[in-house]
Amino acid sequence: DAVEISVADTGVGIPDDQLAGVFEPFVQADSTARAQGTGLGLSISRELARGMGGDLAAQSRQGKGSTFTLTLRRASVSS
Q1: DSSP states of 8-77 as a string?
Q2: Burial of 22 per CB tally in 10 Å (0-12, 13-18, 19+)
Q3: Percent of the chain scored above 90 by pLDDT?
Q4: Helix (H, G, I), strand (E, B), or coil: what is residue 4?
Q5: Nearest residue to 8 (alpha-carbon basis) of 75, 42, 62, 59
Q6: In angstroms, what CA-CA distances link 3 with 11, 26, 42?
Q7: What is the pTM of this model?
Q8: What's the mean pLDDT in 2-21?
Q9: Do residues 8 and 64 touch, judged by C-beta distance below 8 A?
Q10: Strand arrangement, sheet containing 2-8
């Protein structure tokens, strides 16, 4: 049993040939001057999700935007 949280944008999207690599450390899909950061955020986020028994996945269409989905195990509640 899992919970999914998705966040979508209508930005430039990520090219198909770069999508698989966005979760690798120090990789940025957009290497232009407007890109900021070190390329660690998605890598760390996915590792945290996996450390909690979940995952972080991405879907994207270039020119249409991207959707990132965090999946985590549902917590059980004890009485």
Answers
A1: E--SS---HHHHGGGGSTT--S--STT--S-S-HHHHHHHHHHHTT-EEEEEEETTTEEEEEEEEEPPP-
A2: buried
A3: 63
A4: strand
A5: 59
A6: 25, 28, 19
A7: 0.82
A8: 93
A9: no
A10: 2-8, 65-73, 55-61
CB 9 within 8 A of CB 64: no
Bridge pairing between strands 65-73 and 55-61: antiparallel
Residue 73 has which token pair? 């195990």
pLDDT digits (tens, 9 = 90+) for 23-37: 999 877 665 545 677
Give me 34's structure tokens. 């407007």
Side-chain half-sphere CA neighbours of 67 within 13 A: 8
